């Protein structure tokens, strides 16, 4: 959602439903309420199945990248990428990919 749409919603206090929130990019997914907890558990399990250090680095790259100029953001991302290559998970992930098997991640 762009800055203009965000300002419009905040300044007018207009209420929108879930479908509209999804349409304008305010929500990533809309599920029936009866399926919400199950969906959230599946999403959490999917994220947890990834290396927590890599997820942490990705989160940091996204959050920082939004607040700096392009050059600084690219340097920060490259630095984090370098950190990720120093982990056992990187080696395991690449080996698993080449061997066409699921990786067993240890986080470091």
TrEMBL record:
GO terms for biological process: fatty acid beta-oxidation. Its EC number is 4.2.1.150. Transmembrane segments: none annotated. Pfam families: ECH_1 (PF00378). This is Crotonyl-CoA hydratase. Gene3D superfamilies: 2-enoyl-CoA Hydratase, Chain A, domain 1, Lyase 2-enoyl-coa Hydratase, Chain A, domain 2. Belongs to the enoyl-CoA hydratase/isomerase family. The keyword Lyase applies. Keywords: Lyase. InterPro entries: ClpP/crotonase-like_dom_sf (IPR029045), Enoyl-CoA_hydra/iso (IPR001753), Enoyl-CoA_hydra_C (IPR014748). One of its GO terms (molecular function) is 3-hydroxyacyl-CoA dehydratase activity.
């Amino acid at each position: 959602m762009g800055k203009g749409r965000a300002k419009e919603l905040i300044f007018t206090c207009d209420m929108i439903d879930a479908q509209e929130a999804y349409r304008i990019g305010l929500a990533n997914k809309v599920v029936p309420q009866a399926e919400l907890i199950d969906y959230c558990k599946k999403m959490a399990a999917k994220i947890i199945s990834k290396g927590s250090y890599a997820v942490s680095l990705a989160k940091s790259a996204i959050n920082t990248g939004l607040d700096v100029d392009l050059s600084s953001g690219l340097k920060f991302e490259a630095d984090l990428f370098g950190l990720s290559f120093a982990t056992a998970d990187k080696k395991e992930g690449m080996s698993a990919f080449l061997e066409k098997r699921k990786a067993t991640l240890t986080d470091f």
